[in-house]
Amino acid sequence: VNWYGAHMPQMVANGLNTRSAEEIASAIADLRFNCIRLPFSLDNVFGNFSVPSPKASLAANPALESESPLKIFDATVKALTDRGLMVILNNHVSSSGWCCTEWDQEGLWYTDRYPESAWLEGLGFMAARYRDNPLVVGFDLRNELRPANSVRPTWGKGAESSDWAVAAVKGAERVLKEN
User: Fold this and answer.
1) How far is Cα 24 from Cα 58, in angstroms, rounded to an integer?
2) Phi and psi torsions of 136, nearest 5°
3) Strand order in 86-93's β-sheet?
4) Distance between CA 76 and CA 12 in Å, rounded?
5) 132, CA 20 to 30 Å: which among 65, 73, 85, 179?
6) Domain ranges in the chain?
7) Any idea which fold 21-178 has?
8) Per-residue pLDDT for the chain (179 aa), expressed as one digit of tens each?
C-alpha cells in the first residue's frame, strides 16, 4: 500500500481529514495488507513549516493540529506500526508538491534548493529517527528518477552529477550508517 500525501503541499498523509491515523491503519490491517510505503519530502525534514490548513487536513485528528509536519509523520508511522504494519520510508521529492514531470525540477536526487549533501543528510536523519522501530523495515531512496534541468540520470556512466548508481550507493551507505 502507498499512503501518499505527506510529500504534498498539505504536508500530511491523505485521509487524516476524515479518519484518525489509527482508524486508517486498522483498515489497512483489516484488509490483510502488511506493508505501507510512506512518502515524505525533504521539506518535511528540514523545513520550518507548519501544516497550511491544519483544521481541514487534520479534521479527524485534532490532537495533531498544532504539531509540525514531521511530528505528524511520526504519529502516522506510530499508528501503522502499532497495528503491526511494516513501513517503508520513501523520499519522494525534495520540495513538497506533486511530482513527476520533466519540468518539476525533482527528477534527480538533488535540486538547486537541496543539494546532494542535504539529500544524504535527510536520509540519515530519517533512518536515525526510526532506527529503534523494528517495523520500519525499508527505505526507498528516491522516487522515479527522470530528467531535470536537461540532466538525464545515468547508471554507471557519465558525470557523477547524473550517475544514480554512485548516488544510490552513497544514499544506502548513509541509511546503513544511521541505522
Assistant:
1) 13
2) -85, 100
3) 35-41, 86-93, 136-140
4) 9
5) 65
6) 21-178
7) TIM Barrel (3.20.20)
8) 999 999 999 999 999 999 999 999 999 999 999 999 999 999 999 988 899 999 999 999 999 999 999 999 999 999 999 999 999 999 999 999 988 876 788 999 999 999 999 999 999 999 999 999 999 999 999 999 998 878 899 999 879 999 999 999 999 999 999 99
C-alpha cell at 139: 527505505
* Separation between Cα atoms, residue 42 and residue 56, nearest integer Å: 23
For residue 134, with 0-12 CB atoms within 10 Å meaning exposed, 13-18 middle and 19 or more buried, which class applies? exposed
Taking the C-alpha atoms of residue 39 and residue 37, their distance in angstroms, rounded to an integer, is 6
For residues 24 and 109, what is the distance between their CA atoms, to the nearest angstrom? 30
Q: Looking at the DSSP assignment, which residues form a beta bridge with residue 140?
A: 90
Cα distance between residue 97 and residue 47, in whole Å: 14
pTM score, two decimals? 0.95
